[in-house]
Structures are given as C-alpha cells and as structure tokens.
Design a protein that fits this description.
Number of helices: 12
Helix content: 25-40%
Distance between the termini: 20 Å
CATH class of the largest domain: Alpha Beta
Strand content: 25-35%
Largest sheet: 7 strands, mixed
Number of strands: 15
CATH topology of the largest domain: Quinone Oxidoreductase, Chain A, domain 1
Structural class: alpha/beta
Length: about 350
C-alpha cells in the first residue's frame, strides 16, 4: 500500500475535469466552460478532496463577475486569480499532507475550498469537517457557505433568545431557508418574507407567519421585532430601524443592487456608522468559514433540527446554467452541482 505522501505525489501529475474561467463577466455562459486542469498539488497543511458535489450561491456570481469592484483586491484586479468561482465542497479525502492530523484518505467530508467546481480541490483542515450522516454529497455541498452565514447571523449576531420576535427577509433563498430553521430551533417566533410561489415552502421550515412581499408591505404594520435578519430586502435603514424594538438588532447579510462599485454594500457600511448613535444595534458581518461552525451545523442536521432545501441538482458541466438560474431568481433554497465519480 502506498503512503499518503506517495499517493499525493502520484496524483499531482494527473489532470482533472473542471469548470474554467479566464476572465470576468456577468453572463455565466460567456465566461464559464468545461475544460481540463492539472490536479492541485497537496501543499503543507492541506487536504486534497475528491469532490463529489459543490453548489452555487450569491458569492459565486460576484466572484465570477468581479462585481462589485470592491471584491477584486481579493479575487484578482484584472482577472480571476482562481480557475473557477466555486467555494462549497462535499467529497472524499484522497490525500493529506504529512503535517495534517485528523483526516485520512477515505474520509467523507464537507466544507469550503478554492476552485471547487472541479473533480479535485485542496482544502485547509480547519475549513472542512466530517460530512453529516444521512445527507447525500449533493445535499451536504449546499450547506457550508449559506448555513454558516445563517448560523452566524441568527445565533451570533442577532443573539436570538426563546420567545423573541424575528423578521427574516429573503427567507426562501439559500441563506434564508437555513436562517428560518435556525431561528425556529432557538425558540423565536419567526416572521418570514417571501414571494407568492414560495410562501408554503417557507412555512414548512417552521415560520410562524409568512408575508408575501408582492402583496403586502412587510414593514407597514405595527409589529416591532427584537431582531431583523435582512438577507435580500433592500429596504432603507430608516424603514428597518423603525420596525425594531427599542433595543432590537438589525443584521444585514445581503442586499443586491446594480452598483458596480459597491453593489449594495454601501447600505451595510451606513448601518455600522449609524449604529453607535442609535439605541438599536445596526450592523453587518463577513461570514467566517471554519470547522467549528461546520461541526455545530452537523450536530443540528443529525439531530433533525436543520436540513438543506435543494431546489435542483445540476451536473458539473451545467455550472453556467445553475449560476444563471440563481441570478435570475425563482430558486427555493439551494442549487447543487454533482461531480460524477471516476
């Protein structure tokens, strides 16, 4: 039997199927294509995973498009640094660096890695965890980025307590479907906002009330909330602040505009600047990708408290179509990408 390091060296000479992106662009079909790349080498402190599934989220489009421009210092000023914009992985450990402990070839894992739209990806061991029992690879791949964001928004930033009132905008999306379940699990009374076709799906996640934003202004009534998780509402800070209790907490996790420079982040920045002058806490955050959070999510999933909502599974070769569908709207929950086993 070959050692782990020998297996790693052998794999470094091969190639793999992967989604390839060579330039920025807002239209996925124009910039994402299938190709072949060298398998990533296993460097110090890394684990190589045979990817069995990935998924798309809002961040996928932003990395692909290079928009807003504020992302480019990280993603690449003139063009993408990475071969593709994938971040979520679920798969099987294929090789580990000699200095890595806790993982071995054959382990089923999930988490985040760079350039995940490929047959293989290298990950940091502090950003992956054992795959939840009972989930398929496709289901597990939809969890990391979106569920970590929801967990940190609901538990850590909103600090929801049993019996509190929480409003969740964008509740039918990738982050929103996890946020609604987590808020319900913490014992809060959940008011969720969704469009007509998604009302019943969101109600099934544990929402106590679902407001159809196409028929009703969800901030117009007298209700005041202990917390608002604003995922995609794009309402003004003034409107959101008025809907909070005197000591309420606003957590902005998203909000899309067509702005090429800030793309909606200006509202998040203004919330943080305004917060010290308000009795309410107004803020935002950048979600952390770490194994501790993944293990917390695994415990919730295996207890039956939390589960991914998978709208559709695409083959890896149709990654561009998946990104297009996400960008165009209409998705309930998450879109997964299946990477066939060799």
């Amino acid at each position: 039997m070959r050692s782990t390091s020998e297996a790693a060296r052998a794999g470094e000479t091969g190639t793999m199927a992967a989604v390839v992106q060579e330039r920025y662009g807002a239209e996925p079909e124009a910039v994402l294509r299938m190709g072949r790349l060298a398998r990533p080498a296993v460097g110090p402190g890394q684990v190589r995973v045979r990817v069995r599934a990935s998924s798309v989220d809002r961040g996928t489009w932003h990395l692909m498009a290079g928009l807003p421009y504020a992302v480019r210092p990280v993603s690449g000023l003139r063009g993408p640094k990475l071969p593709n914009p994938g971040r979520n992985i679920a798969g099987v450990v294929e090789a580990v660096a000699p200095d890595v402990t806790g993982f071995a070839p054959g382990d089923e894992v999930y988490g985040t890695a760079a350039a995940a739209f490929a047959e293989y990806a290298v990950a940091r061991p502090d950003r992956i965890a054992p795959k939840p029992a009972g989930l398929t690879f496709e289901e597990a791949a939809t969890v990391p980025v979106s569920a970590l964001t929801a967990l940190q928004a609901v538990r850590d930033r909103a600090r929801l307590q049993r019996g509190q009132e929480v409003l969740i905008t964008g509740a039918s999306g990738g982050v929103g479907t996890f946020a609604a379940q987590l808020a319900h699990a913490l014992g809060a009374r959940v008011t969720a906002v969704a469009r007509t076709a998604k009302v019943e799906a969101v109600r099934a996640l544990g929402a106590d009330e679902v407001i159809d934003h196409t028929r009703q202004d969800f901030l117009a009534g007298p209700q005041r909330y202990d917390a608002i998780i604003d995922i995609a509402g794009n309402r003004t800070l003034r409107d959101l602040r008025r809907a909070l209790t005197p000591r309420g907490r606003l957590v902005i996790t998203g909000g899309e505009t067509d702005g090429r420079w800030l793309g909606g982040t200006d509202r998040q920045l203004r919330a943080q600047l305004l917060s010290p002058f308000s009795g309410r806490h107004l803020g935002t955050f950048i979600a952390s990708e770490h194994a501790d959070g993944l293990r917390d999510l695994t415990a919730l999933i295996e207890a039956g408290t939390l589960g991914p909502v998978v709208d559709r599974v695409y083959p890896l070769a149709e990654a561009a179509a998946a990104v297009r569908r996400l960008r165009d709207g209409g998705v309930t929950g998450k879109l997964a990408l299946s990477v066939p086993a060799e």
